[in-house]
Amino acid sequence: MRLPDSFLDDLRNRLSLSQVVGRRVTWDMKKTNQAKGDWWAPCPFHQEKSPSFHVDDRKGFYYCFGCQAKGNVFGFVQETENVGFMEAVEILAAEAGMPMPARDPRAAEKADLRTRLAEVTEQAVAWFRLQLKTGAAAEARAYLDRRGLTPATLDRFEIGFAPDTSDAFVSAMADRGVPFDLLEGAGLAVPPEDGRPARDRFIHRIVFPIRDPRGRCIGFGGRAMNPNAKAKYLNSPETALFDKGSNLYNLGPARAAAGKGQKLVVAEGYMDVIALAQAGFDAAVAPLGTAVTERQLQMLWRVTPEPLIALDGDAAGQRAGLRVADLALPLIEAGQSLRFAVLPEGQDPDDLIRARGAAAMQAVLDEARPMLSLLWQREVEGKSFDSPERRAMLDRDLRALLHRIKDPMLRRHYGEEIARLRADLFGTPLNARQDDRPFQPRPRTPWVPGRRWQPPPAPPSVTARASALASGTSDPDLLLEQVALAGFVRHPSLIAEFAHDLETVPWTGGHGRLAAALLSLDPGGDMRAAIDAELGPQPLETLFAQRHLGISPVTRADANGARHCIRDALDRLDARRGADRERREAIEDFDESADEAMTWRLAQASRRREETQRARRDEDMGSDDDVGLSDYLQGLLDTKVWEKTKKK
């Protein structure tokens, strides 16, 4: 089976060589230059301690200066996995989330078609460039001169011109013997329709060739000279060569410039990129007539971990920037994000450079803002938060924003920064926010018919609870927290699965520090030793000194058994605190004149929550062992083990 060149090209673009090799080696970051795509490590093919194995991400090749091993991404997988070429492609395709192409007996024919189409586009580049020098292009040359483009820039970007004649290009290619179906296949001609003869796609336009990262001309963009044209800019249609959502204008030269240390700048269109490059900002790219796509973001991150999005200084530019930020939010991770450079109102990069020079553009890039700054501005700018309802709406929107971030550690850092911004907005000290303090459950007072409801006694203070924890006594909530945390310490492989719980559970006292440490430390190492190094030995000594943990299934079962026990403990903890939270909210909604009906509604709310949690456990737990783990926890709660410990 012969795979289409387009499939292999797309696979190479989706997976960088360093990403694939990084699974097998430990990079020497002192010698590595990530910005240039140069990676160094000890060779995976022979035993050595020095980093003589080199990966060139820009070229897609590796070479070992010790054993002379060399190849590309497919060869690396073949060697390290001991598989053939097709199996290597299948492995990489699965990693990239790409389905393998179906067997196609015409694959060779299609590959040949792409080659022939590329030859046609190169002929078109030469023809359009020649037309720019004719008398018919005087107006176009004058326009380019007014935009400040030099002859060297016109040559560098191969800018051309399509005459104001409907079939000039088609006729010229026919004279050269180029079949019309190839012109149509390359997106350069429109077939006869509605009684009209075949015609050129680009008519009376300045033409910009579009090349892929390998330097092949895959399509064109055209800027209309007629101010009344329906479309100011026109791009090639989707063809066997051209996919506008999977390419970027000027990506190849920009990648080379970024490798030499320049910042990668994403502008809106062709003229912005050309103006930036002429001013010395060679690492500039632009999407091809569409909003930035997820595929394009991945291409940008392969060049640099933090591209700069240059936003036009108007409302449309701001909206475009927010669309990019929303698209990127689920994809960002440690070392992979975006920054936003906001230009003066009413100006794009081309306007700014022509008006104030390259220094002004550099100043804008130097002041680029992190992505969170742009998102926060959207949530609060021009809004009033003078009522509890409006503040609650802001909190709801911010929580939704945070939940879209998949990386647990990054989500935690975003949450901390949003908490700081929120405190500043409302003028409250960060440590004084009621929402940031863990909710303390209150003991239930049984309802007796005929007796008016009275508020339950105040819960123990955080200090008192922490003291109880240190002394070895506990309460039901602390007991459940201890079961879950002990399970994570004994089975670190479960941390990623429960990362959201570790972040969001309002842990009590020192449990919060332990949960944060579990999230930040490497689950593949010695977790107990790492926690001792991070927090000292006392937290784990105190935790595992609890009587109930010595016989707990969470510390004695395998990872699967521990998983069910942890989930059950967290569900019970949530049920207890959730029921108490409902009571607290009801208490806040009613004054002391509340009657027995209100008390009955509180009991019903608590019962509904407990039934919901019980149903969830029943769904998750199918085996006798699972039920046993759940019964174990319920037994601890029913027998009040913490009171027995206290009596001793």
From TrEMBL:
Keywords: DNA replication, DNA-binding, DNA-directed RNA polymerase, Magnesium, Metal-binding, Nucleotidyltransferase, Primosome, Transcription, Transferase, Zinc, Zinc-finger. Its EC number is 2.7.7.101. GO terms for biological process: DNA replication, synthesis of primer. The keyword Zinc-finger applies. It comes from the Bacteria. SUPFAM superfamilies: DNA primase core, Zinc beta-ribbon. Binds 1 zinc ion per monomer. InterPro entries: DNA_primase_core_N_sf, DNA_primase_DnaB-bd, DNA_primase_DnaG, DNA_primase_Znf_CHC2, DnaG_bac, DNAG_N, DnaG_primase, TOPRIM_DnaG_bac. A zinc finger (CHC2-type) spans 43-67. Its cofactor is Zn(2+). Residues 430-464, 603-630 are annotated as: Disordered. It catalyses: ssDNA + n NTP = ssDNA/pppN(pN)n-1 hybrid + (n-1) diphosphate. Residues 607-620 have a biased composition (Basic and acidic residues). One of its GO terms (molecular function) is zinc ion binding. Residues 262-343 form the Toprim domain. One of its GO terms (cellular component) is DNA-directed RNA polymerase complex. Contains an N-terminal zinc-binding domain, a central core domain that contains the primase activity, and a C-terminal DnaB-binding domain. PANTHER family: DNA PRIMASE. Monomer. Interacts with DnaB. Belongs to the DnaG primase family. RNA polymerase that catalyzes the synthesis of short RNA molecules used as primers for DNA polymerase during DNA replication. NCBIfam families: dnaG. This is DNA primase. It comes from Jannaschia rubra. The gene is dnaG.
